[in-house]
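Field reference: "sequence" (input) and "structure" (output). Example, PTS IIA-like nitrogen regulatory protein PtsN:
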Amino acid sequence: MELSTILRPECTTCATPGSKKKVLELISDIASAQYPTLSSQEIFESLLAREKMGSTGIGNGIAIPHGRLNSIETPIAVLVKCEEAISFDAIDKQPVDILFALLVPSDQCQQHLSTLAAMAEKLNDKQILKQLRKSQDDAELYQVITG
């Protein structure tokens, strides 16, 4: 799957959310602003429910929060680069500064897993990660991740 099919430029942002809860709220607000049929609360609850099962912080400053929604037909992605890393209960106990959030239709479990795996692999590329962290604005961040 081409990343640009699920990640819009408007869903890519550099921000300073301050906490895990605030960054999940930010992701929810960004997604609902671009997809008006979704409520920010519905998205937030989906992301929070997954986090309660265990942190999606995969280490190396990266988190891949994700959730399933009955009300969508295609996956939706949001990319956030935190100006200051935040505590995220990651597996390596390190703070997180890159978050790639994925919202998927409830009935597309296999696609969900393959998209998560592809994104984790991309974010494990040290060169891409370095470029993401150097990105100065939303447009540059989007270009790096989709390039």
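The CA atoms of residues 17 and 26 lie 7 Å apart.
DSSP finds five helices and six strands in the chain.
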